[in-house]
Amino acid sequence: MALVVRFPAAALRFSPSSPAAPHCYRHRRRHRKPLFSKAAVRAEARREGGGGAAASGAAVVWFKNDLRVDDHPGLVAAAARHRIVVPLYVFDPRLLSDYSDVMLGLLLSALEDLKELLKSQGSDLIIGLGSADDIIANIVNEVKASHVFAEEEVEYSLRNVIVNVETTLSASTFSWGSPELVFWRSPLYDIKNLMELPESYDLFLKMRAPTTVPLAAPILPVLNMESNQGALPTLNEVKKHLKEKSHQVDESWVSLKNVSAKTFLRKEQSSQSMFASENASEVKGGTNVVLDALAAYLRYLEGTARDDWQELHEKLRKTESRKGASFFALFGPALKLGVISRRKVYYEAIKYEKERNAGFLSPFGYSAPTVTAAVDAICSMEWYWLLALNSQICNKGMYPIRIWRWKGYIIQYAAVGNEGPAILFVHGLGLSWSISVTI
């Protein structure tokens, strides 16, 4: 049974994987620098092999939910234009306060892999613990950075943090001038003008927008910094930090000495598995692990003699509560953390489908249900991301739109006031306060 009501207060708009797309609004932009700068456009242009002379000075690449080297336009642009590139991740309570223990564990696993990968190239991942505003400003001042590269965000809380970082950098005095905050995207579809985005998913599919190809990982310059580059904290240290909400700069660097032997032993015992524990269903680790897990997922019908692939196939069967549900259950957290990009998943799924069909794609659908599940999930996620991005510059109503994330899905406050649309509540969505606050 369902009830249609009109709410005078703020109402949630839920964005599941369905063709029913939210309405598009036009939004009055705040005073901000362009979100998709020319530098980011040039990064996409280098896909074709173009390049440019390296700029003087350094660049900071601020990692948030893009924990990868593969298909990272910001890293590509920074490496192409600067002789010094400083990768940075900040454990900011404002970005992590709604993370569950499971997500924090997956985050640490992904960061560990990213840090080791960067170190293998002569670079490193600088680890900060505290306020992103202060830590980024300090790093910029130390290396005399002229640019800070960051992924463009649609979520309200993330955009707020970015605004605070912008404000801090603008208010700070640097002898070489104010650093530029450069935003980048890794879109699946090549959409020239978001203002022309259709208001329904069906119309969007009929557009047959061309897709883009993932970028290769760049060659990074060797990173030499005088200050301590920081070690990854333990899960307990992160939880304690989030609880205390400490913003002291002198607590920004965490010593590896605090990591217990028990923690290392636990990592060693589970290192051969794609999952954090026997009962976990979320794929852990870095890009290579997730890509291997994706290969196992797509090839489910083929069978395997590998123990780790057999384990994933068992998880697939357990999480397939409905058609295609297993993909998001297994890979949702990895996509949220940006361990792998959406277009990389799409690219791998389509490549495998072509391998199965002598290089062709059938107009009647995909030959493997796992390919269908992966492609449908990615296309749906990309559609709602485009709508959310469009809502930041397109708002026909009286109130600004705020984008949030609930259990991995993008949602938004649809309207405030009696003029808002009718809201349909359906029994069985599991919408409760105790569940909604977790990811």
From TrEMBL:
Q: Which residues form the Photolyase/cryptochrome alpha/beta domain?
A: 57-182
PROSITE patterns, A to Z: PHR_CRY_ALPHA_BETA
Annotated PANTHER family: DNA PHOTOLYASE
Q: What is this protein called?
A: Photolyase/cryptochrome alpha/beta domain-containing protein
Q: Which organism is it from?
A: Ananas comosus var. bracteatus (red pineapple)
